[in-house]
Amino acid sequence: MEEVSQVFARHGVASGRLSGLGARVVVYVEVHPHQTVSWRLARDAELRIADASVWLTRHQDPYDYWMKPGDVVRLSRGERVWLSSESDHAIEVSLTSYRDEPRGMIGRWLARHWPRIANRHANAL
Known about the structure:
It holds the Pfam family DUF2917. This is DUF2917 domain-containing protein. InterPro entries: DUF2917. The protein is α+β, with helices and mostly antiparallel strands. Helix content is 22%, strand content 35%. It is built from 3 helices and 8 strands, in the order αββββββββαα. Strand 4 and strand 5 form a beta hairpin. It is elongated and about 50 Å long.
């Protein structure tokens, strides 16, 4: 796990825990043998690998990652990811995210158009 975290850190990918301001949401995804699962993230999330190795590909990342059981990687909102496995059985991975705290109209507009500014605006309140 330390090797993966070091690789991600070198390539500008945040690893570590998400700050849990809202309710925690955990989604379990099953990756079937020799198949690829793909989706676009609706919010920042932590991907956790449970019981077998998984191949992770991230949109606009020149590197692919071979993740081992116990590895955790932080993924960003709007990012597209692909997971695949060469295991003989289905593998379960989990995505943990936190619901956003309620924002006013200005906060929602900022989050939609300028995410970095919205985060500063939310922290200032």
